[in-house]
Write a sequence for this structure.
């Protein structure tokens, strides 16, 4: 059985997940071609880099929003560079930053730029996103996985804001990069033939972050809600390590949590987050092998 283990010692965001899967042998060309089925390719470009994090060569993945670039003259739309310490993978992502991943709707205090993602797409509703995915013509397994991950985030946002799932509008989760992170993860997991997923306990980080509704402790409310039932791990880092998007990916895909599984290791992938920490490589390590 083809087994995948998320060794998320530095947390997880959507962009880190995609980067680590491609680093472990996922097909980035297949990913790009499948994503075109969403009909959104005029809104973004995918950017791949190799970066070194505390001595570890890893893959960095960014979704560059085309209209954002026109507005601001740069494309970092999110992901801000390494020195920011946030990783947003947000669901709304920014994914990116991925390293962080904030899927939240939040932006960090330390950001010099708020990502406001107000580019006309950042308020897609849950219903709009479901329709977008269902009408794309993906294989059934890809569609089912992507919809489960979005539903996990939508239900968490609905509980926090006191509204039914159908009325949830994703501030950032609806942003283009979150859609790419979630659908892209589903595409790669199925393309790679993964049959079972296990994850280490998920570190969420510490400190405070600014979200749309004010300053909150890490983990952000949506992230914590999504991680109900998932073992979380202590971390001394004062940073948001796990974004809502990353949390939802792990919560939906992982069937069990704990230490390294009994597998014969075949591939190892490292996906970089946006932040850089002094003594801690900000990467997601994905280990793929055959169960013994």
């Amino acid at each position: 059985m083809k087994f995948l283990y998320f060794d998320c010692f530095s947390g997880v965001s959507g962009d880190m997940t995609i980067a680590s899967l491609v680093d472990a042998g996922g097909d980035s060309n297949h990913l790009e071609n499948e994503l075109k089925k969403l009909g959104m390719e005029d809104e973004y470009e995918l950017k791949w880099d190799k970066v070194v994090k505390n001595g570890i060569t890893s893959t960095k993945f960014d979704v560059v929003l085309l209209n954002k670039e026109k507005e601001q003259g740069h494309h970092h739309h999110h992901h801000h560079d390494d020195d920011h310490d946030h990783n947003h993978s947000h669901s709304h992502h920014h994914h990116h930053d991925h390293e962080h991943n904030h899927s939240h709707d939040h932006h960090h205090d330390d950001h010099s730029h708020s990502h406001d993602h107000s580019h006309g797409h950042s308020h897609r509703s849950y219903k709009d996103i479901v329709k977008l995915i269902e009408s794309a013509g993906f294989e059934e397994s890809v569609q089912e996985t992507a919809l489960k991950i979005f539903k996990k985030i939508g239900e968490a946002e609905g509980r926090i804001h006191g509204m039914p799932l159908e009325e949830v509008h994703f501030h950032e989760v609806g942003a283009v990069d979150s859609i790419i992170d979630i659908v892209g993860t589903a595409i790669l997991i199925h393309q790679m033939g993964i049959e079972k997923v296990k994850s280490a306990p998920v570190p969420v980080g510490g400190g405070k972050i600014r979200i749309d509704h004010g300053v909150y402790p890490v983990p952000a409310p949506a992230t914590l809600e999504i991680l109900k039932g998932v073992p979380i791990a202590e971390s001394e880092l004062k940073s948001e390590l796990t974004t809502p998007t990353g949390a939802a990916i792990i919560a939906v895909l992982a069937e069990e949590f704990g230490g390294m599984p009994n597998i014969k290791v075949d591939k190892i992938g490292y996906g970089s987050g946006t932040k850089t920490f002094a003594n801690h490589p900000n990467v997601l390590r994905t280990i793929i092998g055959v169960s013994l």
Q: What stands out?
A: Confidence is low (pLDDT under 50) at residues 68-122. The chain has eight helices and twelve strands. The first helix runs from residue 14 to 23. The CA atoms of residues 112 and 137 lie 40 Å apart.
